[in-house]
Amino acid sequence: MGNVTIAESTTEQALAVKPEGRTRVIAVIMAIVGLLTLLVFGMGSAATAHSTLNFSPINLSNSAPLHLGSLTLTTRWTVVVLALVMIGLGVEVFLRQPKSFVMGRFGVVAVLFLLALLFWAARTPGPSPVSFINLTDILTGSTEVVMVLIFGSLSGVMCERSGVVNIAIEGQYVAGAFFGSMVVSTTHNFFYAAIVGALVGGLLGLLLAFLALRYLVDQIIVGVVIVTMMSSLSSYLNLQVLTPFPQYNTGNLAPNLAIPLLSKIPILGPVLFNQSGFFYLMIVLVALVSFALFKTRYGLHVRAVGEHPHAAATVGISVSRVRYINVVLGGAIAGIGGVAFMASQGQFQPGYTSGLGYIALAAMIFGRWRPSGAVVASMIFGISVFLSYTLVSYDVPVSLYVLQMFPYIITIIVVAGLIGRVRPPGADGVPYRRD
Amino acid sequence: MTEATPVRLHRRVWAQLTSQHPIVVTIFALILGFLVGAIIIMTTTASVLDAWRGIFHNWGAPGHAIKLTFDNVGAAYRTMFTGSVVDPNSLWHSLTTGKNWPVTLTPISETLTYATPLVIVSIGVGIAFQTGIFNIGANGQAVLGGIAGGVVATMVHLPMVIHLPLALLAGVAGGMVAGSVPGILKAFTGAHEVIVTIMLNYVVYAFLLFAVLSTPFQQPGQQNDISRTFDGSAQFPPLFGTASGLRVSYGVLVAAMVVVFAWWFLDRSSLGFDFRVTGANPSAARASGISARSVVVLVFVISGGLAGLAGFVQAASTTHEIDGGFLIGNAGIGFTAITIALLGRNRPMGILWSSLLFAALGVGGRAMQSQTGIPLDLATVIQSVIVLFVATPVLVKEIFRLRAGPVATLKLATQGWGT
Q1: Which residues of chain A fall below pLDDT 70?
Q2: Closest CB to A355 among B192, B196, B202
Q3: Do A401 and B339 count as a contact with CB atoms less than 8 A apart?
Q4: Residue B26 lies in a domain
Q5: B195 vs A358: CB contact, 8 Å cut-off?
Q6: In angstroms, what CA-CA distances link A225 with A260, A429, B125, B340, B388?
Q7: What average pLDDT does the segment B101-126 reach?
Q8: pTM here?
Q9: Treating both helix axes as pointing N-terminal to C-terminal, what angle do A169-187 and A356-366 enclose, rounded to 10 degrees?
Q10: According to the model, what pLDDT value does residue B58 have?
Q11: Residue at B42 is within a domain
């Protein structure tokens, strides 16, 4: 153990970079993106062009919010305002060099960029077949992605706060989605599906914990192998079982549960108060995990184990017990995330999580290993994932495939810009041996 | 003492076989992998499950159910073997009559063809592992190498002596570009290579679709996501001539050269020594003046270059074109490479044998799918189970009650998210 820490810290020292220089680079990137937005989408659109915002959701299931009329804005000046905010954030970061939330500002710029692109794409007269932007639908659509990411990054927080890296989130998503779809198809009950998803995810967490804690296998390798195993196993079972028996994969969309009155609020109502049970469960879990980690005795133990397992062991905390519990619970949360994803897509398809598990992991780093931070980070990533897919229907002159790269590129930039500024739990990923 | 040796020889062999020797552990891991695969087939095949359900209805049924179970598993593994190594009946026929050799040799030719890019890409991943770097991005690097090599192979027209090497170099360069991104980011910002490479994989997949649907690269007259066909001068010719019908190509020579290069590089070159020192003991490497930063960048460039080479070799020796699903389907070549490198303990010869094994599993898996209907993905499941056990020698030791012997621990040093 001693050796490992020393070795690790020296490589990290060898690679250590002063974050100050990078802040300026990021600030310049932000300002350039803003400037390009200003020139290309702002001044590039005709002075007479308008963009229309709608607020009433197309799908009025359960409970329709109060009707709001549509809002028509001049495309050029709306985009110019968005671009000026982007440039302003860049300049502010360059001059003030704030200590925290630099990458948060970067994420905001990325989302603003996509919004500006959307405004520009939906302008009339313009080439797009869709001539309006439905803000409420965009927000509810993003919420589905955000929700899945939050489950995943919460799982990451649970595991990594206790010192175990859970790369297997993607595999837990896949397993949760697969078995969730089978349960929903046979019982038509999403509650059972969530329980089964949690069990399956928890079992995969147990496998990770068993190999990583008892046999000290490299946690990242176990995680990657679990992901490969689950994606190939689900694809095998899909062909071998679900294709001949399609009745096990009819799936369903999770029904929305509208909260009386609150769901009537325009925009916010459909986004926050007319969601599936998974959404409310997620909110409860975020609160629970935050409370448990930072306000309870057990949370103190978890953080002690994640920061300095030997010190924790000295005062009588069982390091491996804490880690087992957290990794299994974390796996269960990610498993529920997989069911939630299935419930927003309708049924299971092999390979359709397309790296969301890894984006969730990046969101956890972005959120500084805190549940609240993970929520904010998941929102930024989720909205950019959803927007880049939405833009496809707007006949944008950029290839659909280039747009699809966008969220992944943002993730890379954020992770690269962030490291050095955030500090992972001290013993994160380091195997613990009782000496 | 000397007289006693012959008597004790079988005991010594037995002692080796029941020890924790790396090869013994690997063999037991293989057994466990196939055992898990068998259990999966038994529990998921509809006809088998129906037979078991039937045992409550008549007395003869249990025997029938057991027989059906073993028939199914047996057929699956038998077709896996005959489809990837050799069909004994066909071999006997060829030996006695001297005819049909192409048919007899097709399975092994397919396995060699399949193994060729796997060897190259896995050696790249193995070199990175030996340096303590986890290159999960080999898949994206291979795809970009395939695209870059493919562009040269389709849009430049030259005699083969120049064209093939040039396209090959373009492939290497493509992989190096994709590899340098995580390398540079890790060296200069500390971004963890696992997240960066996985995200980059998705970027490259999107770029692949963009490329094969763009006019200069897309097959003329096609709406589908497929590239132009490589020029004949940029394809690897079949090793035994076109008339043989065997697909195995001169690409295997490239793979052989890569194995030799990797052995020389890791064991004889000074840069390779720096790499291994960095992987084994970063602080010692630093103390002896090795620049951690340049090692990280170089490892990724070399590893990515090999992956890119593999991508091009794959396209130039089999399909002669690239489609939108190039190397992505079925877990992807780069992910298989991780498991191969682990199984081969990151050594060139180990990787060569593991690649042949995994290629046989893949080719045999395809034969199994077409003949018994059991999906090919089972091969990938078996591979990942094998690797889990290889990575956990102590668990294998406990299951089979092996005695302590030469320790088979797998030295791996991946690092945390960094501060």
Answers
A1: 1-20, 59-63, 419-421, 435
A2: B202
A3: no
A4: no
A5: yes
A6: 46, 16, 15, 12, 7
A7: 94
A8: 0.88
A9: 120
A10: 65
A11: no
